[in-house]
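Hi, here's the filled form for the chain we discussed.

Project: internal
Contact: R.S.
Residues: 621
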Amino acid sequence: MPSEAEIENDLKKHYIRMERAYKKLERDYQALSIMHEQTERLRDANEAAKELSNFYNRLLLKNTPGITFLLDLDMRFVLGSDKTVEFLGNLDMREMVGLPFAALFQTLMTDAWISDMCGRCAQVMHSRQPANFEEKVLLLNGAELVFQIMITPAEEHSGICRGVVVVMNDVTELSGAKENALRASRAKGDFLANMSHEIRTPMNAIVGMTTLARASSDIDRKNYCLDKIDNASSHLLGIINDILDMSKIEANKFELSSTSFNFEKTLRNAANVINFRIAEKQLDFVVDIDGGIPAVLRGDEKRLAQVLANLLSNAVKFTPKHGTVRLDARLEEQSADGVCTVRISVTDTGIGIDKDVLPRLFTPFEQAESGMSRKFGGSGLGLAISRRIVEMMGGRIWVESEPGRGSTFAFTIRVEPDKEREEESFHTDVNSRKIPFLGETPRTDDGVRGTTVSPSTRPVGENPCADDDARADADAQADVDARTDEVEQYEGRHAILAEDIDINREIVLALLEPTRLAIDCAENGAEALRLFSDSPDRYDLIFMDVQMPEMDGYEATRRIRALETPNARKVPVVALTANAFREDVERCIQSGMNEHLSKPLDCNAVMSVLRKYLRSRNAPA
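And the returned structure, exactly as it came back:
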């Protein structure tokens, strides 16, 4: 048995061990407490960081401008911007997580678009290459939007792809503005090309007739050429004035003046300008003026006359022989302070205008139909300028028309009567509306002034210029005989001249008369094609204008080259065109033409082409 001393010694040892264990436990507890405190502190920091991160994510998604969302590898929704939620119908974001892409968009988009997008996303996941494209998207509700879409792979730093990020920006408005800008740019480009042609056409007449006048010794022949030059010069001046007016309008520097003028005299003068053409086409011209319109008004008489002349010349231009043109003026209202609203209309029984063309008639730099402008001439700016003038005079202009049933162009203006000259009146007591317009204008009992033109006294169907033309032709023949020995001869050779403008045909025929070249004329590409198709082996050369109605020179040349006959592929085709830009020349060559002669025509250049492609009878071997 242990002694008492041994037992006491063992107890002391045990006590020491317990004390050590307790101190160790205390130290461990303190360490654990510190660790717990640190853990809690770290957890709080993590929670704060997580909350901050979530705040930034929510802020980013809320302010992302486009429809932006994340899809996983299975094409299921992970996260999206507020715009995405709004676009999809303001769903709860938490309910959207995990839903397939097709399920989210099936109420908005077509199945074809959804299928295409799934294919694009799969391709991006596979290739790890982003896709960026713009496309029009038709929604199920019928709306059409334009989206700029970017699909990028959602990759980790390790390179593992977890899905795709899709960004869809609605650029419908921007795309529309871009299209409008491009359309306007194309319209201005086409306008410049048309103006090049419109300016060169009268220049061709001026240069050509000058050449003919110099070559002629007969005074009547010279006068005939000078008359043609005068007409072409007036036409050219009108085109230049239209261009200058349109330039002022574009620069916002177009201004009106205010002067006192006799209203009926202004209408009379505007109508007298077209009297010759009315008589030439044997039209019935009626003018009906409301007697309630004050005799003397204040406004811009020159610009009002410009609008009237534009509308009247168009009416005469597009009205066939024996038709009717009316000019009506009505007082719509007169305010307490005396300001008058006058409605003026020009009505014709002409060819009319297609419904889809009407909205473009008053648009600058756009012509209703190029073939029509080629056939009837003009810059295509007159109506746009007229609209600006009318609007500046406090009114508006519009048109009512049907194809084959004529047109009515009407406009209103607001003008003030000139009280200092209101005593002026129309001195007549005749009660008839039907009087020669060149004479005095009567006022009828009902207060309405009415007039009509006396058609020409020349027999129906007789050309008023026939005698002059016959005399000029006779004189020209004398000139041809005198100059026959001076130029190379191509007697027995045949050519086609495809040209839609009368004076241009006349110039070419006159220039080539001394060569004895037989020429058959066509007024458009279709006629030229028919002439050559009927007798493909007859022709040694084709002069082809480029811009013609029905079928232009490019298409006519292509169709001739496509004919199953050997001469169709080798006959020389020479372009006669007022379009002198480099791209125009290249287009002529690409269509199958051999040469390009620019208008105004140079006589030496024409003769050089003949020498190049035709074997002259008296040329050296």
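Let me know if anything looks off before we file it.
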